[in-house]
Design goal:
This protein is mainly α. Helices cover about 80% and strands about 0% of the residues. Helix 5 (about 80-85) packs across helix 9 (about 160-185), helix 9 packs antiparallel against helix 10 and helix 9 (about 160-185) packs parallel to helix 11.
Length: about 260
Amino acid sequence: MKGKAKRLFTVTNLAITASALFVVSIIPVIYLSFINRATGDDYGYGVHTHAALLATRSLSGILGAAAKTVRDHYEVWQGTWSSIFLFTLQPEVFNDRAYVAVTIVTVTLWIAVTTFTLYYLLVRMMGFTKSGFALINALFLLVNVHFAGSNKETLFFYNGIIHYQLPYLLCLLLIGLVICFGQRYKWRYLLAISFIAAYLGGSSYQPALLGFAVMLLAIAYFLPYKRDKRILWLLLPLLLETIGLIISMKAPGNWARG
């Protein structure tokens, strides 16, 4: 009996079971996405871009309206320019049935980013087996997706996802990319890190601070460990994020919201 239980409860079998459980648990979430619609701030931030789409049918018109919305809110409401820019591009701006994609895209990104980062953290950096990684990954996703503070903000409401969930996922991706860069020093990793860092500078403030912490900790770890000064290239994305954050923090609108 002990031998049979030992063969049954292997890490591989537990990983398969946990992965299957997560897949089954996500089916109701995907089902609900098909009745999900824009609401509240989705309309307020998207009104000018939708009007530009109807009036010009051009990308330049849409982007111009998005930039105007960012500028207006920068002056009177808040400085989080990268979040506001994406607010203006909510799916119903382009099609009244497109909002169903919000949850599907969010869940897909959540799975992909979590899997990527945990793989490089656990397998490439810490030497876990792939079965062990798959088990932890499935359990982490199960808890992370279903026990978030607000399912509305993290899975169904576009503005909430853009302002809170997307920066969280970008920070998670940043961890994986920083590990990749610290191990291989490929320029494509630095370019991706720089783009994420610049975006985080204009997003919500907590992820921006987390982005700083991730890059500074990477420098503190890899510089003495590998004795390779190429890790100091991370100072470039740190600078970009700092510039973006200063622009956000100096917005006159922050006084109004504060």
